[in-house]
Amino acid sequence: MRSTALGNDTSACEVTHISSHGIWLLADNEELFMPYEDFPWFKRQSIEAVLNVEEPSPGHYYWPAIDVDLTKEIIKNPDRFPLKAKFSVT
Q: What is the pTM of this model?
């Protein structure tokens, strides 16, 4: 007897930890650290906004509440992508 899967697949990525230094993203069984120094968009966001991450395609992560798109390559090698958006809090 074979069972069929019910419902939709859940996201393969999730934020597993938020600290004063950055956030950790678990994606494809790999934990990726994003320090605020390299990823300032997350620093002053609500927990709800940071936890709300989607993976629209493999290795591509999107935070809709913050409108931030990142790839696994950018997260692993932020020094290769030095151009960053200006971030200011008013």
A: 0.77
Contact 23, 38 (CB under 8 A): no
Cβ neighbour number for residue 74 with a 10 Å cutoff:
18
- Rounded-to-integer distance, Cα 85 and Cα 68, Å: 10
pLDDT tens digits for 27-65? Answer: 999 999 999 999 999 999 999 999 999 999 999 999 999
Q: Do residues 50 and 4 lie in contact, with contact meaning Cβ atoms separated by under 8 Å?
A: no
Edge-to-edge order in the sheet of strand 54-57: 54-57, 60-63, 68-71
Q: In 3D, which of 17, 15, 32, 36 has the Cα closest to residue 72? A: 32
